[in-house]
Amino acid sequence: MTGANAQREENDAALVLFKELSEQFHKTPLSTVDPVLVRAWRPRTSLWQRMLPLFALQAGLKTEYSQVDGHQLHYWVGGLLSGPVVVLLHGFGSNKENWAFLTGKLAKKYRLLVPDLPGFGQSDFVPSADYHLAAQADRVAAWLKGLGIECAHFVGSSMGGAIAAQVAARHPSLVAKLCLMNAVGAPGKHLTQLESGLAAGVNYLAPTRAKDAWQLFAIVLHPQRRLLGLLFSLLMGGVMSQRKMPNDFLFCKLVDSFADTYRQLPSISAPTLVLWGDSDQVLDASCAEVFCERITGAKAMVLPAVGHLPMLEVPGITARVLHDFWRAN
């Protein structure tokens, strides 16, 4: 790094903010994860896991497996075999099933690849592995290259958006067009419920008890989708609380990756759409402006009465927006 670049970084308010956030986070109990317990953790069968075949049917896709950097990676594949390839990357503490409502609306025109990211869902969690976002991006790139995919449209939700952005920056030839959906990697102007909780030592994205999952869905979904949130909290509360140990470990790596992702944004050359819900209480909608400032030519669209998960909340609108973006010159 040149002296001028170093000076610019030192004066970049966002990087200063991310450094402060990381330091504050690591002073809270949330960052104290017992490595012995992390190594001893194993997934258990839950109601949610028994439901997974039904979600695959809903999605209209089949499940496949790949070995990537010491992980068995589970993913959905399907859609139009000859169509443009679309890769969908889920957010923190989530899984490929987050895309089940959207995939059926894309499958007639696109070949879909939807992974459980390493460490999440049915894919392996390896305590000794590097789970910073750059390492995750490299795993995604290696997985696609192993499948013979040379170029694809990427859509990333929240943490998956940061990983998709890192893929676009680190492996530019692999990304045709990029959609960052309520993505991690840029600071917002307003404090969200998630950020307020983190400051108080509570991570709503990693519930301790099954019954606390309703708080998570009350934050990530717009209030109009309370019934949907209640349904998912009943289905997923058990597995979310059982995965708290690895999720706490993985969240530390996410926090430590904010600044690196932000630095990478100007390196992105793929046409980029920044898609956000106006009622997001995980990452403030003002983050979209920063992404557009950092990525040359990026355009933002803010969806009204939508929270953190447009693909779950308004899958029809989300599919139309993506289709228009992909077919535009």
From TrEMBL:
Look up keyword ATP-binding and say if it applies.
no
Instruction: Give the signal sequence positions.
Output: none
Report the Pfam families cross-referenced here.
Abhydrolase_1
AB hydrolase-1 domain mapped to chain residues = 84-313
Coiled-coil region(s): none
InterPro entries under this entry?
A: AB_hydrolase_1, AB_hydrolase_fold, AB_hydrolase_sf
- Gene3D superfamilies in UniProt: alpha/beta hydrolase
- Keyword terms of this UniProt record: Hydrolase
**Top-level taxon of origin:** Bacteria
Which GO terms of the molecular function aspect are on file? hydrolase activity
Protein name stated in the entry: Alpha/beta fold hydrolase
**Source organism:** Zhongshania guokunii
